[in-house]
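Example 3.2
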Amino acid sequence: MAQAPSLLPTLASDYQRIADAIAFLQDNYQQQPNLAALASHLNLSEPHMQRVFARWAGVSPKRFVQFLTKEHAKELLRQHNILDTSLALGLSGSSRLHDLMVTAEAITPGEFASGGHGLHMAYGYGATPFGQAMVASTPRGLCQLDFFDTDTDTERDAQWLALQQAWPEATLVRDDAQAQAWAARIFVPHLSTDNRPLHVLLKGSNFQLQVWQALLRIPAGQVLAYGDLAHAIGKPAAARAVGTAVASNRIGYLIPCHRVIRQSGHFHHYRWGPARKQAILARELAQAEADLQVL
């Protein structure tokens, strides 16, 4: 069996081709390019393209492309009415994210006011199935996961500066090995030897915390519209504020803001880029479909 540290760089490299494929499909949507055209654009043979998609997404390129369409997204939205959504998000406890449990804790008001004074935070950089990421954590849990596109000193410096601005009084220590260990637990849990629940440490206003907690209860492979999420937390007139809170999330993937889309089926408005949002959703949908076939 492949080991997580060696598999994640491969998946990160595959993601660059997936992102290129998504961009090509978006740019040429009117022409409805076939798989041969997609393979040619990626400079891959069709069999090689098939292998890349199977390794990264677990499905064929054709099925993956179907997951990316607005029509498919709108069908997912139609599967849930507001009442069902309210009931689902009202359940107690943490949601299931694949085979892992995610639990959340908010920092104390004193820690918030002090900018994280007294917190010891390890941060580092590692590979994920969605490109490179900076991961920051404290002994109490993960507090930041930021994806980035170009693994350069400039990009890393920008990520570090954002972390320092978010936690100006915390003690920051670089630890790439710990960051990659977190990435393994999150993205390839079946290869990780650490089966403890994933704990996240949240920093935000009471309203933001309410929205982020609700996001944790959206099952993998499902999506909501911003208005439905506002209804679900009992604030139907606050769809715009809900959207702002969703966009303020700094723990990518684990706090699944990617599962909230426009009612029209558009995937826009994502801190780490709409192509990455589409890739995350499509991969989740593929994994959810595979899980159903096993049952």
